[in-house]
Q: What sequence folds into this?
């Protein structure tokens, strides 16, 4: 005959709770192991970052070129024109042909805030080292656009260093 289920459960419960400190010590050990492993991985990731050096000024111009003010308007024929772009070059290197991305959002309430289009183009400017100036006052075409889209962000993707 099979034993009563309540007797089995009482026996198993008694064995499982025989020494509750074993469970606590095991959890502390597991928590400590996970924490130490996380610290090791975070430290390795931090040391793998490329430092700001003169070589990084030529390899990563997007780190040193800051766009503080800009305007984009679209004509009826869906051509986007960028003008009055204020650009700061914080590096010791001169750059030309700054590649940028313009992100657009919808003007309708159903898609407001979400990016619906992106255009990549090159600004035909030359940035002297350690400078801040407004360029393209008359404007330059930067891909397609629409009067039904808002230009919400201008991202610097890169530039050509002049060595």
A:
């Amino acid at each position: 005959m099979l034993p009563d289920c309540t007797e089995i459960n009482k026996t198993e419960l008694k064995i499982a709770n025989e020494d509750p400190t074993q469970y606590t010590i095991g959890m502390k050990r597991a928590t400590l192991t996970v924490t130490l492993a996380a610290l090791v991985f975070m430290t390795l990731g931090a040391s793998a970052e490329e430092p700001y050096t003169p070589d990084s000024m030529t390899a990563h111009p997007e780190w040193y070129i800051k766009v503080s003010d800009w305007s984009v308007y679209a004509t009826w024929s869906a051509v986007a024109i960028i003008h009055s772009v204020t650009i700061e070059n914080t590096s010791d290197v001169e750059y030309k042909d700054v590649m940028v991305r313009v992100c657009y959002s919808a003007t309708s309430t159903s898609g407001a805030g979400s990016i619906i289009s992106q255009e990549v183009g090159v600004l035909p400017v030359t940035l002297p080292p350690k400078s801040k100036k407004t360029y393209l006052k008359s404007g330059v075409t930067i891909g397609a656009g629409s009067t039904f889209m808002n230009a919400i962000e201008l991202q610097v993707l890169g530039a050509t260093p002049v060595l």
